[in-house]
């Protein structure tokens, strides 16, 4: 050991020159800064190759360890805010965001927005059309036909309308297989989360700053805006080349409806009141259930239908449909409209009398969620009782619906 005596020893002088080994310093010496030897020329050249190049003038700052951003190939994502970091699916090569658990989850995440209690944008995506195309493709039939319904938080609670809707498919005649072609369009975050818990194909329709989560009373401003938003979305589906059956979630499915559609109808719509002829314009159309083929005529009609809201302010899409069905423009574009008989596609307004032929049962002419739920549960109980009957009693036609109870038929006469 070398003790400090006021003069540095040979070893301590060597340490001060650059070895920086504390064992050569005296026990009572004051610490001096470590001065390592300068690197060699070879080490300097190696380090210069590893350092990132200097940032050019006007170039944005970026972390050298982060991967290069990708751009979404969808036409809706041409803005700089649509840049994202993606990973590619091993099976198909489609790019998706890093950290995403789903195989084809193609959501484009913008810079994280400030979350507020009233925020209704969900999920925080910019590019939604690419994901919509994949959902439609996965759920479509061989002829590019899908089944669509819409959902908001008010109808998504356990035991509420959406559960009854899906349950009717499972208890219907040859309808359970149709669930794999059903896409649920969610209007809000809670509805989307609930949909992913109970169904395979869900799509979050971003609604901006409009809150569609609460129950929308008939003909209120929120109800009208939700109906028109839905109609514009259906036009988009047609433009993508998909035909569809649109069904409100308060319609119970008891039989496969495809055998009851007309082969020559571009737009086939259910009725609140059916006069007995499928082409008679006196039929009162109900926009809650319709079958639409994707072609130039139907696409042009949906554009015309949506734009007609400006001609008839304060009316919802169903009323406007009953107005414009007489318009000469329908004949000009060559659209063929067929009205579906209430014998097969009935509702509380005009119930199907024969349960041996009924396809769907709609809780129309009914205002208020609780009234609707009550009568829908009665409808499902009646159907289960009918299905448990022996064939001889089924064919007798003695069984009938016990509705309406809490719903009102007087709406049709207003």
Walkthrough of the structure:
The chain is α/β, with parallel strands linked by helices and 414 residues long. The protein has two domains: 74-112, no CATH class; 129-414, Spore Coat Polysaccharide Biosynthesis Protein SpsA, Chain A, CATH 3.90.550. Helices cover 29% and strands 14% of the residues. The chain contains eleven helices and 14 strands. It has helices at residues 10-19, 41-50, 129-139, 161-171, 189-198, 221-239, 296-307, 317-324, 328-333, 369-387, 391-396; strands at residues 70-71, 83-84, 86-88, 95-97, 145-151, 182-186, 202-204, 243-247, 251-253, 267-273, 284-292, 337-339, 345-347, 360-362. A seven-stranded mixed β-sheet has the order 7-6-5-8-11-10-12. Mean pLDDT is 78; it is low at 1-30 and 69-126.
Mean pLDDT: 78
Low-pLDDT sequence parts: 1-30, 69-126
CA-atom Rg in angstroms: 33 Å
User: What is the CATH third-level topology name of the largest domain?
Assistant: Spore Coat Polysaccharide Biosynthesis Protein SpsA, Chain A
The named CATH superfamily of the largest domain: Spore Coat Polysaccharide Biosynthesis Protein SpsA, Chain A
Structural shape: globular
- Give the strand tally: 14
Please report the first level of CATH classification, the CATH class of the largest domain.
Answer: Alpha Beta
The percent range for strand residues is: 5-15%
Could you give a short account of the major beta sheet?
7 strands, mixed
Structural class: alpha/beta
Count of separate DSSP helical elements: 11
> What helical percentage do the residues reach?
25-40%
Assigned CATH architecture of the largest domain: Alpha-Beta Complex
Compute the number of structural domains. 2
Trace the largest sheet across and list its strands: 7-6-5-8-11-10-12
Protein name: Glycosyltransferase
Region (Disordered): 1-70
Subcellular location: Golgi apparatus membrane
Main location: Golgi
């Amino acid at each position: 050991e070398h003790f400090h005596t006021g003069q540095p020893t040979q070893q301590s002088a060597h340490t001060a020159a650059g070895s920086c080994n504390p064992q050569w310093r005296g026990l009572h010496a004051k610490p001096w800064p470590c001065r390592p030897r300068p690197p060699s020329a070879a080490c300097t050249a190696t380090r210069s190759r590893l350092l990132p190049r200097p940032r050019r003038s006007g170039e944005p700052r970026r972390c050298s360890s982060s991967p290069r951003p990708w751009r979404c190939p969808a036409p809706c994502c041409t803005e700089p805010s649509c840049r994202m970091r993606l990973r590619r699916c091993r099976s198909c090569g489609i790019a998706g965001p890093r950290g995403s658990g789903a195989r084809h989850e193609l959501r484009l995440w913008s810079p994280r927005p400030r979350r507020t209690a009233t925020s209704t944008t969900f999920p925080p995506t910019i590019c939604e059309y690419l994901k919509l195309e994949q959902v439609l493709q996965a759920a479509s039939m061989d002829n590019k036909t899908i089944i669509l319904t819409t959902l908001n938080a008010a109808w998504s609670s356990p035991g509420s309308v959406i559960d009854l809707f899906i349950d009717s498919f499972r208890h219907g005649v040859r309808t359970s297989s149709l669930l794999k072609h059903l896409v649920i369009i969610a209007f809000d975050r809670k509805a989307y989360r609930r949909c992913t818990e109970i169904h395979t194909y869900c799509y979050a329709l971003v609604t901006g700053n409009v809150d569609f989560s609460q129950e929308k009373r008939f003909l209120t401003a929120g109800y009208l805006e939700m109906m028109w938003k839905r109609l514009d979305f259906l036009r988009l589906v047609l433009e993508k080349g998909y035909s569809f059956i649109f069904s409100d979630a308060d319609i119970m499915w008891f039989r496969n409806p495809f055998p009851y559609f007309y082969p020559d109808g571009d737009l086939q719509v259910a009725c609140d009141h059916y006069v007995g002829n499928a082409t008679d314009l006196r039929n009162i159309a109900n926009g809650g259930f319709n079958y639409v083929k994707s072609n130039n005529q139907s696409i042009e009609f949906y554009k015309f239908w949506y734009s007609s809201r400006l001609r008839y302010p304060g009316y919802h899409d169903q009323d406007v449909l009953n107005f414009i069905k007489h318009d000469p423009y329908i004949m000009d574009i060559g659209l063929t409209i067929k009205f579906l008989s209430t014998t097969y596609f009935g509702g509380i307004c005009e119930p199907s009398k024969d349960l041996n032929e009924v396809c769907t049962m709609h809780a129309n002419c009914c205002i208020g969620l609780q009234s609707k739920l009550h009568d829908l549960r009665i409808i499902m109980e009646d159907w289960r009782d009918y299905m448990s009957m022996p064939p001889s009693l089924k064919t007798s036609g003695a069984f009938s619906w016990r509705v309406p109870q809490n719903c009102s038929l007087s709406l049709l006469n207003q």
